[in-house]
Amino acid sequence: MSKNILITGAGSGIGRDAAFALAARGHQVWASTETAEQAQSLRAESQTQGVSLQVLQMDITQEVDRHQVNDLAIDVLINNAGVGESGALAEVPMDKVRRVFEVNLFATLALTQEVLRGMVARERGTVLMVSSIAGRVPVPFLMPYGMSKFALSAAGAAMRAEMDRLHKNIHIALIEPGAIHTGFNQRMTASKYSWMDPSSYFWPVRERLMAEEKRSFAFLEARDTRSIVVQIVKAAEAARPRLRYVAPRWQGWGVRLARILGV
Ligand SMILES: NC(=O)c1ccc[n+]([C@@H]2O[C@H](COP(=O)([O-])OP(=O)(O)OC[C@H]3O[C@@H](n4cnc5c(N)ncnc54)[C@H](OP(=O)(O)O)[C@@H]3O)[C@@H](O)[C@H]2O)c1
Description:
It contains nine helices and seven strands. By secondary structure, it is of the alpha/beta class. Helices cover 49% and strands 14% of the residues. It is globular and about 55 Å long.
């Protein structure tokens, strides 16, 4: 059955690909982008591909932008918008930690609350939180981002139990991508080198760190978004979605193993 779906951060990467995949399956998709330029190019691309997408510009950190959802009868909200930030917790500037939490947690929660009002009134809905497997295993030098995803996953799991108690047919689920090549990880790992200077504790080893990051993402990253898009579609269409949807699957097993080993 066709659903009304709003996806945030659809100007690129996983969000963009999920928006096209959901629209191609006959859903009414509102694809929202952070900037007007992204909205324009997404509109042009949907016309070229002959796929029907309703594109809107919404910076989720802006209250006035978030209010746009009040005019939409949303069945499924996909909280995909997110930013990365890396650096050692011993020295990362706190404004950078606050910014990543502002987008990945606070704005995401604020938008969810706004959309839930309509869902509760209509007594149906699904909210997908695009978290990360970096929200289940602590990764050194990635924790400004990882902490925000730990918090988002915890919030999503608790909100799921709260909504179950309300008996209004509202389901909350977590989408947990592993490393996927969208450019996100490269931008995130590079971010710390913009503020690290010779006074940084890790300055003497930065080149080794850079080489390790490059090697590990070259090994870990899935080449495209297909596996996680399949999971997003599955969760969006499920009558009763599970708590977690993970892809690529082998990275999910890696997380389980890491947790068994007590990492
Ligand atoms: N790629 C991975 O390996 C991976 C792994 C685990 C989880 N994830 C998660 O998957 C989601 C999508 O990531 P991706 O890999 O597809 O990277 P991406 O292409 O950078 O997608 C993130 C999108 O969110 C948008 N965004 C950022 N701040 C926003 C704001 N304030 N309001 C609205 N949109 C905003 C970005 O817009 P701009 O381009 O303007 O910044 C971008 O279009 C993120 O939540 C990310 O944390 C990704």
